[in-house]
Amino acid sequence: MTTPSNSSRYTPADKMASIIADHYQLIQVMSRFGIPLGFGDDSIEKTCRDNGVDCTTFLSVVNFVLDGFASYQTISDLSLKSLLHYLRQSHIYFLEYFLPAIRRKLLDGIRLRSDNVSFLIIKFFDEFVHEVRTHMEHEEKYLFTYVNALLDGKYSAGYKVNTYSEHHEKVGSKLKELIKLIIKYCPDDNDTNLLNDALYDIYRCEEELESHCRLEDCLLVPALLNFEKSIGFKV
Amino acid sequence: MPRKESVNIIIAENSPVLAAGFSLCLRRLPGLNVNIMEVKTLENLRDCVRSAKPDILLVNPSFGGLFNPKEWREENNGENVSIVAIELGKLNRSTVSLFDDTISVIDDLDTISAKISRLSTSSPFSEEKETLSLREKEIISLVVRGMTNQEIADKLFLSIHTVITHRRNIARKLEIHSATGLTIYAIVNKIVDIADIKV
Fold it and tell me: Do A67 and A46 share a domain, yes or no?
């Protein structure tokens, strides 16, 4: 268990309800860990325990999301299983919910027509979604499978986490390009409020994807390296 | 050149006040997108370097006993990492000479910003836009019609390398890196007619 002084903003004894109420971004974190709302006045530690979530991992992600950087002190205490669950749920959220929702808003906002560039903006977005999907599916197929095998005690040779680090590209940068394209070149025949709404979502999506990738680089990869070391992998 | 270059910085400093202070200052630097990682032990540092590809290591000279940049570089394949000493009081000259630079706790943001820009390979302030040449516009019009680099080279009697260089310059000038993005640009700027575009 991490000691409370451990550079973290929040500790296991804090009330779950107060940290969530203070930082609305954490609602996402909580639900991706599979913790439902309605925990009354329970502490973070108790809420995590009741939901079968590793508390140190939960707090590391919380502090990472809030501070934007990772402290390496807690790496060896992280539960790879909980972390992996969190990342999988994040993938599902992006692919099954957030990106399709943005697409719908974008379609309504820019008023799709064939005689201007509106359809190309949607095409750009679809290409982006396709890239994100490929990227995430690749992670699940190789990296996550590898981690699960490790956790099951099957140490397959060949794939190492280093292989993964090298392939990890930032998926969010293309969204910056999309934002610029819309700002600069969107046809003026659009529904301003709906389009603004879509743009806000795209900004938020870009930030969340960036944060998601960094979380993988800054928590998952070091935790994995640590685990590989603990079972005697040569580094 | 994208306006916000990303710079990865590791802070190896045991004092939480200093580590947090540097972390905050660095993230406030204008025009730079800074990723910070904090480490507290040499072992943390080693793992962090392997997973995060830092550009700059900001380290307290007394980190892990006595931090020796030269030895550390040799042990960690750290040739490409700029190593900067955190200066609390006045460091003696022989210590300073071991590091690429020093950042003092009393440096102001402009000074820190200048040092970080110089040390990271990024060039955050090259913001000026250049206009496209006629040749570049011609190449755009062919790209958005779906021609490959080789086809463009053949049509314009250029080598494929020249075409690739042009395309790279176009992407840099417009900050557009995809064919679809380029198509949008080309239509809006009347380089091609929308009727010429097959989707």
Answer: yes
**Kind plus residue range of the DSSP H or E element containing B6:** strand B5-12
Query: Once rounded to an integer, what is the mean pLDDT over residues B53-81?
Result: 88
Q: What is the mean pLDDT of residues A11-27?
A: 90
Across B134-144, b (16+ Cβ under 10 Å) vs e yields: eebebbbbbbb
What is the distance between the alpha carbons of residues B10 and B8, in angstroms, rounded to a whole number? 7
CA angle A91/A131/B147 to nearest 5° reads 175
- Ranges of beta strands (E only) in chain A are none
Using the 3D structure, point to which of B68, B96, B119 is the last residue of a domain: B119
The pLDDT score that the predictor gives to residue B125 is 44
Is A69 in contact with B37 (Cβ distance < 8 A)?
yes
∠ CA(A65), CA(A71), CA(A74), 5° rounding?
A: 105
- Report yes or no on A4 lying in a domain: no
Confidence of residue A5 (pLDDT cuts 50, 70, 90): very low
| Predicted-complex ipTM score | 0.75
**One domain for residues B62 and B37:** yes
Domain with B167, as residue range(s), is 134-196
- The values of phi and psi at residue A187, to 5°, are -60, 145
Domains of chain B: total: 2
Please tell me if residue B23 touches chain A, with a CB cutoff of 8 Å: yes
Domain boundary among A29, A57, A75: A75
Answer for the pair A70, B37: CB distance below 8 angstroms, yes or no.
yes
Cβ of residue A29 closer than 8 Å to a chain B Cβ: no
pLDDT at B48: 82
Name the band, by pLDDT with cuts 50, 70 and 90, for residue A168: low
CB spacing of B27 vs A121 below 8 angstroms? no
Give the tokens for residue A174: 């293309």
- How much is the pTM? 0.71
